[in-house]
Amino acid sequence: MTMPAAVLFGSIGTLAETSEMQREAFNRAFALAGLGWRWNRSLYQALLKTTGGINRIEAFALSRGQRVDARAIHVAKTQIYHQLLKEQRLGLRDGVAETLAWARENGIQLGLVSTTSLGNIEGLLEALAPHCRRELFDYLGHGGLVERPKPDPEAYRHALAWLDLSPSEVIAIEDTAASLSASVGAGIATVAFPGENVYCDDFSLATSVTPVLSPDVILEAACADEKQTAYG
After folding, report:
1. Is the pTM of this model over 0.70?
2. What are the phi and psi torsion angles at 129 (to 5°)?
3. What percent of the chain is modeled with pLDDT above 90?
4. Domain 19-87 class?
5. Starting from the edge strand earliest in sequence, which strands make up the sheet with 109-113, in order?
6. Residues 118-150: b if buried by 16+ CB within 10 A, e if exposed
7. Membrane spanning segments where (predicted)?
């Protein structure tokens, strides 16, 4: 099997399961704003098809015929989320630690290709220390580096340019169908590693789908991509 030159984790959700923590932060921010909104789990799962927290708030408000300051609400949500990261115990998702260690031992570059804020990324890595540190990543992408968030492929193209690699040399890992569209749109073979609130998403564009990450899963995706390239 061919070793990829880099493995690109597509979001903070591919490293740690934060979806329910994020939902709680949204609901607390809504309460502070006096909106009377509460996103239950099934509603949140549907809303996750809209990428970006501000966009999600705006879309929900529009569906209710309301006008809100989505940016201010999202600022409050982010502050609450960072506090929850400090208060609650957080660990890496199944197989992530082993995959990170394997990549490092084999000279495979690591990237985090997110379009969330740098503050959110730093907050997560601080919560995951010492098991997952900033120094592990050769490339750390965030929303401030691109004009168009996922599902636009710009974030992945930026990462490829930074690492000086072609799409065929890397494997991406994504946790939602919307984000998967970004990596596939950049021509990158992608392993779908669904988060707990997106199991019903359509991951048919993925090279493979797995509930547990591992070096074998990465290598199998690289091999499948190599065969597809060879046989057109």
Report:
1. yes
2. -60, 145
3. 85
4. mainly alpha
5. 139-141, 109-113, 6-9, 170-174, 189-192, 208-209
6. eebbebbbebbeebbeeeebbbbbbbebbeebb
7. none
